[in-house]
Write the structure tokens for this entry.
Amino acid sequence: MARADKATAVAELKSEFEGSAAAVLTEYRGLTVAQLKQLRVALGENAKFAVAKNTLTKLAANEAGVTGLDDLLIGPTAVAFVKGDVVEAAKGLRDFAKANPLLVIKGGVLEGKALDAAGITKLADLESREVLLAKLAGALKAKQSAAAAMFAALPTQMAQLAEALRAKREEPGE
């Protein structure tokens, strides 16, 4: 690879690292081109799966300010750059790795923090962003409903108390 080609490749990888919310490093040894195409489809539009030389990836990551990947850049390495929902991409990688054991998840980086393979698996076990937001909205609505019921109960109880006092005063025995 000529020096200019390497500089271009490093610049492209650097822009991918800078524009991604996460990057997941995998070993793809033994996968066919058709299987890699299936993986790219499984990741969806919010992730880009790229095969790059380890030295170029290391240079690009360092230039982008991403640390903690040097130990993972051993052997044939491909990087999944995630621009959208990180959980969805992690699930796609995990599920594809289960179906194709030749794909090995090495680790990655999420918002500047290094993750090992177990961290990526934990990330994949999370529910999607939409589901978590829906649960949060439901919890907030439940709290608001409980508060509204409590505030509505206070005037009702006060009216019942006033009625009981009025009825007690009107009793003939007093």
